[in-house]
Write a structure and sequence with these properties.
The complex is a heterodimer of chains A (215) and B (191).
Chain A (H helix, E strand, L loop, with lengths): L22 H14 L9 H20 L14 E2 L9 E5 L3 E4 L2 E10 L2 E2 L11 E4 L15 H20 L7 E6 L5 H13 L4 E8 L4
Parallel strand pairs in A: 1-8, 2-7, 7-8
Antiparallel strand pairs in A: 2-3, 3-4, 4-5, 4-6
Helix pairs in contact in A: 3-4
Chain B lengths: L6 H4 L10 H17 L5 E11 L18 E4 L3 E5 L12 E2 L1 E2 L5 E2 L2 H14 L5 E6 L5 H12 L10 H6 L16 E6 L2
Parallel strand pairs in B: 1-8, 2-7, 7-8
Antiparallel strand pairs in B: 2-3, 3-4, 5-6
Helix pairs in contact in B: 3-4
The chains are: A alpha/beta (215), B alpha/beta (191).
């Protein structure tokens, strides 16, 4: 590789600090600068910013105004209905194919049986599975009981807390529970949850559904 | 007289553009996050009253001396069973069995259920309560559709075809509100 005795070759206007610049290079750099100043410019992202801001506001309004933030997946798919009542502030009880969830906490595990066997990972999407709560979670450990004890304990505590909050804020406490249930959950489990909610003082019930055109 | 040198060329009025790149970076992260959390489906609610354990009995109103209809729909694996107050029954109600629509698999006959309930409403126009129960293994989505069939009146009083029933519009009054069929739904659990 050929090397220059005076050091590395520099292009016009690229003199290293402390080095003298050739007068011709200086002129070239100045001419180029004068021309290119008006041509070069940053990408105009103002219109993109406008779109982004509108989208952000729209999404924030929609998300904050939704009292039930539901994400559907393989374990929670809502039933479809033509019902037209909007959800309101209430105690949400979520029944998925795996758990009963209150206040973002898993309260009771839901057992799944597919053809007499315990469901494997891929079985949850199949039809005809049977979902139930183990009798150890029920009152007196009885299979026939409709009272799910850990759920009743949690709901009672939540109702008590909400009553106190309502009292402090001089508001009326509405004993309303919204049940967000998967479409395949059997009536037995729904009835157990509804009965337990009733025992905890939540007698007015709402069932979350996805609005559909056809019934 | 000498002309004033151009201010533009000397760059005295040149205003630097606001650097929007950090804001853009935040938005690019924030928007996918919000889109993920955003529900692209409309969630509504069905109002149901808590169940009463044991045989269902509608509470009679104090001022009302008439016997309550006590209309009950039970969803079974074979179809629907419609029951009412024994004293108001002249002949036993026939069950509404599942049937095949247009040669497909057997489905619950929601059009027949709606038609039966509509006939009951015509017979007892003041009645607004319906008890809905089911066999223990009936999935929730069937019960939700049963509640739909019992809740509001449709344009026609009777439907034969599932497609016509499914696409039927809700009957509305002069104010544009939906006309109720049996809006007060009570869950019953028959032990």
């Amino acid at each position: 590789m050929a090397t220059n005795e005076e050091g590395p070759q520099l292009e016009a206007g690229n003199a290293l600090p402390g080095q003298f610049e050739h007068p011709l290079d200086y002129k070239k750099r100045n001419r180029k600068g004068a021309r290119s100043d008006s041509i070069e410019g940053a990408l105009n992202i103002n219109s993109l910013m406008d779109i982004m801001t509108i989208l952000l506001v729209f999404l924030l309004i929609n998300i904050t105004s939704d009292p039930l933030s539901i994400t559907q997946d393989d374990y929670l798919t809502l039933a479809k209905s033509t019902a037209d009542y909007n959800p309101e502030d209430s105690v949400p009880i979520t029944i998925t194919k795996r758990n009963i969830i209150v206040d973002h906490k898993q309260i009771v595990k839901v057992d799944c049986a597919s053809g007499g066997q315990v469901c494997q990972e891929g079985d949850y999407t199949k039809e005809g599975n049977f979902y139930s709560v183990d009798k150890s979670f029920k009152e007196d450990g009885s299979e026939s009981s409709f009272l799910i004890e850990p759920l009743e304990k949690k709901l009672s505590a939540l109702v008590k807390q909400q009553k106190e909050e309502a009292k402090e804020l001089n508001r009326e406490f509405k004993a309303v529970a919204t049940i967000i249930s998967d479409r395949d959950i059997p009536f037995r489990l729904i009835a157990e949850v509804v009965h337990t909610a009733g025992m905890a003082g939540l007698s007015d019930l709402r069932f979350a559904v996805v609005k559909t055109g056809g019934r | 007289m000498a002309r004033k040198p151009s201010e533009r060329r000397h760059g005295k009025e040149r205003v630097e553009d606001l650097n929007l790149s950090p804001i853009m970076s935040i938005l690019v992260i924030l928007i996918p996050m919000l889109l993920y959390a955003f529900s692209f489906f409309e969630v509504k609610v069905q109002a149901v009253t808590a169940p009463r354990m044991g045989p269902s009995n509608a509470k009679p109103k104090e001022e009302d001396e008439k016997k309550p209809l006590n209309l009950t729909v039970l969803v079974t694996s074979k179809g629907f069973v419609v029951k009412q107050q024994a004293e108001l029954t002249t002949e036993p109600e026939k069950p509404i069995f599942k049937r095949s629509f247009n040669g497909g698999t057997e489905e619950y006959d929601f059009p027949a259920l709606y038609s039966r309930l509509m006939a009951k409403k015509k017979q007892y126009p003041d009645e607004s309560t319906i008890n809905i129960g089911a066999e223990m293994d009936i999935p929730w989505h069937i019960i939700a559709r049963t509640i739909d069939a019992a809740r509001v009146q449709l344009v026609e009083d009777s439907y034969e075809d599932l497609k016509a029933y499914s696409e039927a519009k809700v009957k509305s009054n002069s104010k544009g509100e939906a006309v109720d069929l049996f809006p007060a739904v009570v869950f019953v659990v028959a032990e």
